[in-house]
Amino acid sequence: MHTIHSPEQFKTLSDPRRLAVLRLLMAKPATLTQLGGILGEHPAWVRHHLKQLEQAGLVRLDEVQVTGGYVEKYYRANSQAFVLQQVIYPEFPGQQVVVMVGSHDMALDLLARQVNSLDSPYHLLLLPVGSLEGLVALRQGMADVSGCHLLDLETGEYNLPYIRHIFPDHPTSLITLAHRLQGLILTTGNPLGIRSLADLARPTVRLINRNRGSGTRLWLEQQLQLLDIPAEQIPGYSNEVATHNAVAQAIQSGTANAGIGLAAAAQRFGLEFIPLFEERYDLVLPAEKLHDPRVSTFLDHVQGIAFRQTVADLPGYSTRHTGENPAH
Questions:
Q1: For the chain, which domains are there?
Q2: Predicted TM-score (pTM) of this structure
Q3: Rounded mean pLDDT for each run of 10 residues along the chain, 328 residues in total
Q4: Do the strands 172-186 and 209-210 form a parallel or antiparallel pair, or are they unpaired?
């Protein structure tokens, strides 16, 4: 699990040269040579600033390619960089922002459109960085609310064991958003005849994976360990995207033919779906945020009848515990 050290990261980005490198890597992965060519600097200069960004947890080595005997290392921005970027830069004149980080959820997408379309003093900003990254960002005070769906195999509980670990000395509140159905999202017609997770190891399969720290990615890692299937045996395992919609889009476009995601995403893009598990998606917030009018207004929408009806219409979603505290 990556840790967000906000003071060090802000200090690192105070240098405009490092900020320029990071912005390029936020657009797409690149090598030292490619970065040097764009910035008009020697690769050694780029290497120095890249090392600083890497030490601050803002970039990471993404892929190593060998072409014509040359080794090319591709670097990319970490999810923390996107948290910082989106929390710092967006401005919504006349509105106060409620920052929510964590796992991507299609019901939350609908909620954001519902809230932000109103003549309201508040704007809901969603940052899909993954369940673990979201909880850590919340712990560091970089968000108002986090969304997660983390299964603890030892206890069979969702979210609570992780929250107890990350917030041992900080009172938190949990509110269930919904129960969601996840499974294998596959090319229309399932031409490869994929039936289970074990089939992902076939050489003809091209997986599109979720980002590191996401609840879906962690669930897949746990299941592969139980099946004794090394992740490196799955073609495309290192190809990752940040949302369920992006998984479905990659499969629809033909750049991948399998992924783990929501039933609602599969149906939206007209893809095959094999159900694997139902999970509980919770909203997590520091207890004191319950008295923040920005957050309490957001929670009022979650508990409203209109939102429940909208979520109930999503394939694979259930609102049977929406608005309840699962810890009680």
A1: 6-80 (1.10.10.10), 84-172+284-316 (3.40.190.10), 181-278 (3.40.190.10)
A2: 0.74
A3: 46 72 82 90 90 86 80 80 55 78 93 85 86 84 91 92 91 96 98 97 96 91 95 94 94 96 97 98 95 91 92 96 88
A4: unpaired
